[in-house]
């Protein structure tokens, strides 16, 4: 079976979505199937290459990637948008997939209709919360005319997405809820974590890592993720400021990049914050996550939260935004809090009150309930069960 993955918000420096697509391709290949990713690229012509990336080891190929020329999204996003249908359609026709896996509910929704016409079963994966994104773009509270209009618009879009594909996949109950609200049947397939790369370091390794950066005695916090408005990374800086105002000797490492970085650097100029940018080396990322005492996961719209799970795998407990899917993923290995800096600071202190060995062991145990092999098998089961409407 040839599975063609189609995604637009994936780039060489993107995080969770790219990792998920790579790990699924590896799982498909291990099960004897062929997998190809079709994604945006710089052009001027479509190109075929093997990417190495976050899911791969040093120099390890993670499968065939077809890059279709696409324009950059304005700003510092680093993304390109597959808005031109003709070149994508030509690539799909050349690849002749047995199954189409679409990881986008905006500019690529048309691909479901293409698949139906071609007799190819299609699966759409719900990686984002349209409810949450619409609420940020068109605020107006949870009730009243604006909220009702917003929900109706989201429901129309989600109903059209579900109707355009044979199966709908969501990674959490939170991600599934808005699709189930319009009557869509949703298959739930959680993501996984690389439990080998992301491993809890021993106490000696943690002490050595902290000593090299002069943070032996400080409470070390880490924020890992894209620095974009919807993920509200400012909450991590606010939490650090609150903790220090309470007399807590704390530092913050920020792992990731994005359009919010300049504003965050200005807000943190009087605080012990280190901005590391996007960390491509997964081993280096794991070492930084494992050296921290607490990870901060501030995104209230996360439909899974892979960075938080990777922190847990490294034995680092998580203070998570109480909204979204993060509480489902983190479970009792962390705490879920309201969306303000003081609440995140309180969450840090709550976790620090737990015995260090117990809180790190609980984090690792929670991560071990998620695996990429099970995630890939879940996706393959959905693909096997899919039947084209035109078949």
TrEMBL record:
InterPro entries: Glyco_trans_4-like_N (IPR028098), Glycosyltransferase_grp1 (IPR050194)
Domain Glycosyltransferase subfamily 4-like N-terminal: 15-195
Keywords: Glycosyltransferase, Transferase
Keyword Transferase applies: yes
Molecular functions (GO terms): glycosyltransferase activity
Keyword Transferase included in the entry's annotation: yes
GO biological processes: carbohydrate derivative biosynthetic process
PANTHER family (UniProt xref): SULFOQUINOVOSYL TRANSFERASE SQD2
Protein name per UniProt: Alpha-1,6-mannosyltransferase
Record lineage: Bacteria, Bacillati, Actinomycetota, Actinomycetes, Kineosporiales
